[in-house]
Amino acid sequence: MRIKGLDLSVGYLGLQIAFGIQSASLSRVFQGLGASVDQLAILWLAGPVTGLLVQPVVGAISDRHGGRFGRRRPYILVSALLVIAALAALPMATSLMVAVVVVWGLEAAMNALHAPYRALVADTLPPEDQASGYAMQTVFIGLGALAGACAPILLAWGGWSNVAQPGQTAPSIRVAFLAAALAVALAVGWTVARVREPVSAHAAQHDLSEKFRHRSGFAALWQALRPVAAIQFLSWFGLYLLWVYATPVVAGQLYGATSPFDAAYARGADFVGILFGTYNGVAGLFAFLLPGLFRRFGVTQVHAAALVAGALGLAGLALVSHPAGLVACAVLIGIAYASILSAPFVLAGRAVSSATAGMFIGVMNIFIVVPQLVAGLSMGWIIAHGLGGMAWPVLPMAGGLMAMGAVLSLCLSTMDEDAPLV
Asked: Domains of the chain, with CATH numbers?
């Protein structure tokens, strides 16, 4: 299982290097091209919107696909090529409009890649190994995002300028995005070359796709998985606020930055890369412990404790004024992030078979993207009209939402049982 789990997860290393650079640097790119802080949330909407539209469709189509190249592999390859092209184009954009268009293409391709990739675990691993398989993916998610988030500051230390000129992206960010494109090509190529999809998945797909067509499989999955939805809503709402506002908040609160074109902003944005790299690295390490913790204490109990840690970390990013304290906050966020990426999938995965894994991933993704969509549409107005243009209160708000998710997780102890839900 270990070798197969490793091969299944290597592709996530490249994908999350790209995500790490994007999550730590996208607000920086937008502000360098002229976006104001109250515009950032809506400019980030490409991710949740394309996730809502693309992942369920690609997941369900790949469930029904069959051919000599496999069920998932064709979608993985085409999507990876589109991701590579968009990563190379984004840092070269010279206007906010062009950057937004490229980001929409990048997010659509990354979401199309995510659904069949995640479904490979259910396709190729037996049920008793799937928790470990998802945890191993979380390890690589954390390690890849660590490398991506820290790439800009490492390049700055290596001599590349980290200060943006009006209408341009900083040179260190340009090189980082190009490196991410190369990483995606190598990592996805490894998984595609090494993982063989089982022939039995095709036969099961034909029988169960017919069954689910008559039973409204999507609705049945929604009915089974909706206990997880509220926790995911609160968790991912908080994470969206972290990704969008950490750069302007930390640059302003810790470094006193007043413009996205000054050196203080560049130092703050680079330090956010360290914070994001820290939480992703901690998530990758903590994921090793999760299978054992889940078995000993129960998935819902562990998830609740992790969300409490994340709530404290999110609030601390805006309230702590020392770099070491902010790193400690990032560690707490990393503990929560590891559980957010694993626990809901372990709980919900008991409701489905491998034949509908793509649809399952799509439904789970709805629980992830809808809160981001709500945050993106609402937070700009809240900051402009409710907070007087200040972004820092948003992060304590994110912490409060995650704490509410912890309380709800304690109410789902019955989902720790292995009985199938559909």
From this structure: 2-416 (1.20.1250.20)
